[in-house]
Amino acid sequence: MKQFSFDLESILDIRKHREQEAEIALGKAVRDLTRIERNIVAVANEKSRVSLERFALGYGVAEILTFDRYVQRLDAIKERLIKDAAQAELKVEAAREVYLEASRNRDALDKVKSDEAAAYRKEIFNEEAKVLDDIAGSAFVKRRSLEGIHA
Fold this sequence. Notes:
This protein is an all-alpha fold. It has a domain at 9-109: Helix Hairpins (Orthogonal Bundle), CATH 1.10.287.1700. 90% of the residues lie in helices and 0% in strands. It contains two helices and no strands. The chain has helices spanning 9-54, 61-150. The longest helix is centred in the C-terminal third of the chain and has 90 residues, at 61-150. The protein starts with 8 loop residues before the first helix and ends with a helix. The relative contact order is 0.12.
């Protein structure tokens, strides 16, 4: 019995590879966005800490002005990070679309392969049934002829 062979196996392999590459790219884009979001949270926490410390007793005008400049710098960093996060979200969405398209393409070819494999199994089953019927028929005829000789 010949083994099942999918004619488009090489194309399926290429589509699987493209899907894996797209998945890796999506992972990197999500990683970058997550890193930016963590930095935003860190800057916000630092700003809160500095704002509370600013009003501690014992600081003079010079120190308070230094705190204010540092808070302004943190605000500028936060604004830049928010813009970076918006760009990173766009990259995540683009990477997600590429991944979904690659996944759909691979799924479609997997479905074709599955359908062809099922048709192949059905054909093999039918051929085996036909052979078994022929064997049973031959045995029956042989038995009949032997009964006729011995009768």
